User: Fold this.
Amino acid sequence: MTDVVKTIYPEPEKKELTLGFIPLLDCCVLVAAKEKGFFEKYGLDVTLQKEASWANIRDKVSVGALDGAHMLAAMPIATTLGLGFTKKPMLTAFSMNLNGNAITVSNKLYERLLKLDPSIETQPEKTPSVLKQLIDQDKQANKPPLCFAMVYPYSSHNYELRYWMATGDIDPDNDINLRAIPPQYMVENLKEGQIDGFCVGEPWNSRASQLGMGKILIAGYQIWNNSPEKVFAVTRAWAEKFPNTHLCLIMALLEAAQWIDIDDNRQVFADVLATEHYISLDADIIKSSFAGNIHHANGKDKSSLADFHVYHRYLANFPWCSHACWYMTQMIRWGQLKTEIDMKQMAESVYRPDIYRRAADLLGLGYPSFNYKMEGINNSDWTLQNAGNQFNLGADAYFDGRIFDPDNLIGYIEETDISRLAINLNQAKKLN
Amino acid sequence: MSKDKQQLNIMLIDELPERSMAMEKLLTNLGHRIVATVSAGDDLTTMVNRYLPDVIIIDMDSPDRDTIEHMHSISAERPRPIVMFTNDDDSETIQKAVKAGVTAYVVDGMHPNRVMPILDTAMARFNEFQAVRDELEKTKNTLEERKLIDRAKGIVMKQSNLDEDAAHKAMQKIAMSRNMKLVELAKSIIAAAELLK
Assistant:
């Protein structure tokens, strides 16, 4: 087996690697690559290092203390742009997963929402407008604003929470307080009443819900079906210095993602993930979340969301440049990006389908020949026909029925009611 | 220049009380004021808004970095937002800080000359503690190794009917001829014995 690998695949330039991760369910792709021998298969000796913050992940990858890491999908873009403290060109050739987030609120806030409209229990799409009513009542009564938390300014959680609120006409910069809290501290903060709700990756919503400390209002999947979540990222300089190692890593991760996307494998693997070295949490919670269980609101019922966690199917690992563009539109919408840029050019320098295709080719996996796709047009699974290949893709609908067209990026931003623009859209139009 | 102008208000975020006490003393000696010492679970946002530190020194093992970085993005209402301290464009400060395991956030616009001595002091303290920790780790490893060698020696004594000294010498000879460490050989002997049980 080893001989075959050596003859077909390029020899990695660097074999001993340290990769960083944050204790979240979606680090399972990296952990499976290590524990199930996929890294080893390609001659890589990988140490996985748990990190305490996304800032550490960014800085350690930037200065080479880590070879690469589990990263928020928006982070390599933000870091390349020099947003968020450090400027360093980064890239990703591998999307680690889709979905896996949820918005959870305190029991107290949930009771208040339920009193205003009991139908939210079964109709999560109503939650933002009911929350808006509640916020307006509080304002009239001169009560202090609610406080919500997410994990990092350049995170899917920040953007999902803001998107969800804005559909209910809530201005996340003025109507509530918003702060960043690390995932593993969310439940504690909710319990102590420091915050009224949060948007975080699994298993932390399930944990709050199962411990009876909070209620899951809505899954990230319901806000944007099959949205890109984490990526595997390295610096551009690293990728240029060790191209074969990078390719081997992507191949190993692709195989690991295929393996972990099978539910039976995941259920067994939950015991490994639960250990102290990785997520360090009760395996039952991990198993339940992996199975797609969402423990709802009343504490008794649970619903099942088949696509709560997507690791490989639906071309989940393909780094769509359109996904990178969507994140940039959100950075612009919320005033994080303060200069006009050519978004597609930036997307193509950070998101690298070309490298993904080389890895997929070596593994005999198919891939699309184009880099951009529309979002918000499919309400259920659909078939993508491309260059003689057929791909089963998942739904891509947004909560509010909007459509994202990567060929109309500025128009998409212009359509938003609530925003905090810091750039001139007319200037930006000349570049996009 | 008066001393007051030089004095900076510093917040320490460190999980190790010993280390943070040592740092507090050193930084006070440099003429600065420690306005707060924060540990896990404290409400950082409230503390920062209350004490308005000029400099935040933070242990990189603390998860609070993400909270601080977000405060920058929402600090429009605060006159001086907090930014990560870097002394240069090529991230040399970050590199040194990552190595030591400590970093600093400062109010925007502060001159590096005022902050560098503080960060240098913190990095030196952290490196010193790292050295202490490494030393402990090494002692622990040596002990572990000795235990393994003793266990292997016991197996050899029993199997080959040798006394302790002879067993030790036999093991040394094999380890030398195979160019392996004695502890590696010991591990192999223990593994083999378990297999043959």
About this structure: Residues 136-195 of chain B form a domain with the Arc Repressor Mutant, subunit A fold (CATH 1.10.10.10). Strands of chain B lie at 9-13, 33-38, 55-59, 82-84, 102-107. The first strand of chain B starts at residue 9 and ends at 13.
